[in-house]
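Contributing new records

If you add data, match the layout below exactly. Sequence lines come first and carry their own label; structure lines follow with theirs. Keep one chain per record. Anything else will be rejected by the validation script.
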Amino acid sequence: MPRQPLPLDPAPANAAVLAELLDGGQAFRWTQAGCKPGVWMGRWSNHAITIQPDQAGGGRLVWTGDADAAAVHRYFAADCDWAKLVDDLPWRSDAHLARCLAAYPGLRILRQPFGETLLGFLCSATKQIVQIKQMMALLAERLGEGGALPTWERLAVADDAVLRGCQLGFRAGYIKRTAEYLAERPGWLELTEVLPYAEAKARLCELPGVGEKVADCVLLFGGGKLEAFPVDTWIIKVMSRHYGLDGWSPAQVAHFGRTHFGASAGLAQQFLFAWERANRV
């Protein structure tokens, strides 16, 4: 299959920004292709593609693989005006945010399948990105078909030993009970995805193993709800060090984030998160 252009505007400015986009905690099914910087192989739904910089230059990206252009464009939210969304953030009055935006030009929010995003973040409790990726790969290998992740119906009837064999640990129970809940309620996730942010978050928090942080991650990275502001240990550090919120609870930090950064608070969160991890002390 010939390589096809991926019209991202702005595109990730360099290999480091592309790595942050694909392997920085939004998604867990991308791997770097050998030792080639900037070449990544990824999966979602029944799609598998390779993405890399265009050899012709110009800062463009090209892709090839088992997907149609519409699916790839949706996954990368190519229809959103990311330049405007970034410019609308309060970087003019927020020096730290301005520094983070300058460090990761072209960073954006992926638009992953909602159910897959939920599964990934159910695996995330107390785990690092590399471990979550291992869990997702094992779930696809042992319970999925054709490299795809297993359906919730398949997970609902999966043997507990098989789930634990996917390195899930205590998360196996959450995933099993959530899968049973969803298998008994066809259309529940589809409805949740299209509800307004607050309603969708409340519904997600009904699921076993889903707290406010996981719900916000699912809504941001899978539901396209940019007002979601996930708060993890990195964001707690950011807000303590750079915004004077030492000792604030995650809920208080999330409220501050949505208020201070505005309608695209979740986009700001990704820049803050990326900068803090890269400059950890």
